Amino acid sequence: MTALTIEARAEVWPLREAFIISRGARTAAEVVVVEVSDGAHRGRGEAVPYTRYGENVTGVLETIRSLAGRVSTRTDLAQHLAPGAALNALDCAFWDLESKRTGVRAYQLAGLAPPEAKVTAFTISLDAPETMAEKAARVPNLSLLKLKLGGAGDEARMRAVRAARPDARLLVDANEAWTVETVQHLVSVAAECGIELIEQPLPAGNDEALRHIERAVPICADESVHTAADIPRLVGSYDAVNVKLDKAGGLTGAISLVRAAQRQNFKIMIGSMVATSLAVAPAMLLASEADWIDLDGPLLLARDREFGLRVENGIMYPPEPELWG
Asked: Could you say which residues bind Mg(2+) here (predicted)?
């Protein structure tokens, strides 16, 4: 077999406007891109090192580069890497390389159904209630909005956006900002506002507290779920899980996580970090398995990469082979 070369680089993609959540703000997507080549074909993968999970761009690049000459197939990766951004970028690059080598689309190689176009959530960053309402009203063609919340003032934020967009489907993401003392009241407010889903209301580690509240709105684990191994302890605390390739360790780990969640009757959200279409493309292969997709990263960029995913009125279409897979 021809020896493979593995190259990794950092890229910075400016955002249209600041992306603000309860843990802070960013004005650009900082990603790691991996290219795996056999000399005739090249596969690409993209990942986002996330400080919440102890990652940074420098460390992920060093990890990926250290594997040069030590891995030759996708199945080799799990012997060297734990789930995270490095494994995601490499795993997706190997899937893409196999697709390019064989001429078979990645979804077929993975045994998945043909990917389908689906409405993606569009994120409204954390801000004052009136500002979030104004931003929601500014995108009347987008039917599914995800509100970033932050604790104090969240009741007003939900009510303001609902008043501004009575027609929209709404999801909310607290990014661990609620407390055991406030969660029940805020869940009740969310129900009054017709919210479809509440994502990660409490800090990861406080999952047990959710067993003892009335969940009038389904609650989705994000920071509390990374891989299939996490599913058993979430039963009874959550109703849904957010599957992100950066947490699960690529498409391979994400498929395993989706299957484990389905066996326990969890609803499925397919999500991603803020990144380009290259990172989102593999996640789109799981859209048909999902109750919601939250893959709006490319829409938040000032510009996307060449052959980026097509999105029309919030409907995201599967990737073309020129982009990935």
From this structure: 173, 199, 222
pTM over 0.90, yes/no: yes
Closest CA to 299 of 283, 310, 284, 285: 310
Residue 148 identity (one-letter amino acid): K
List Cα–Cα distances, 169 to 108, 174, 247, in angstroms. 32, 17, 26
246 assigned ligand-binding residue? no
Please state, as a whole number, how many other Cβ atoms lie within 10 Å of the Cβ of residue 22: 17
Beta-sheet strands, E only, within 92-168: 118-119, 122-124, 144-148
Handedness of CA 206, 211, 215, 217 (dihedral sign): positive
Can you tell me the mean pLDDT for 290-314? Answer: 97
| Per-position b or e across 61-97, b if 16+ CB within 10 A of its CB | bebbeebeeebeebeebbeebebbbbbbbbbbbbbbb
98 and 129 share one domain: no
- CATH number of the structural domain spanning residue 59: 3.30.390.10
Task: Please check whether residue 321 is in contact with residue 99, taking contact to mean a CB–CB distance below 8 angstroms.
Answer: yes
Q: Are 21 and 50 in contact (CB under 8 A)?
A: no
Of 115, 130, 164, 166, nearest in space to 290 by CA? 115
Domain with 304 in it: 118-316
Q: Is 199 annotated as a binding residue?
A: yes
- Could you list the active site residues? 148, 244
Torsion angle of the four alpha carbons 216, 292, 279, 57, in this order, in degrees rounded to the nearest 10: 0
**pLDDT for 2:** 65
Does 75 share its domain with 172?
no
Q: How many structural domains comprise the chain?
A: 2
Question: Is pLDDT at 1 greater than 80 in this prediction?
Answer: no
Q: For the beta carbon of residue 19, count every other beta carbon within 10 angstroms.
A: 19
Note whether residue 113 is domain-resident.
no
Question: What whole-number distance in Å separates Cα of residue 80 and Cα of residue 66?
Answer: 10
Find out whether 222 is annotated in a ligand binding site.
yes
- Whether residue 250 contacts residue 84, with contact meaning beta carbons closer than 8 Å, is answered with no
174 alpha carbon, distance to own chain's centre: 15
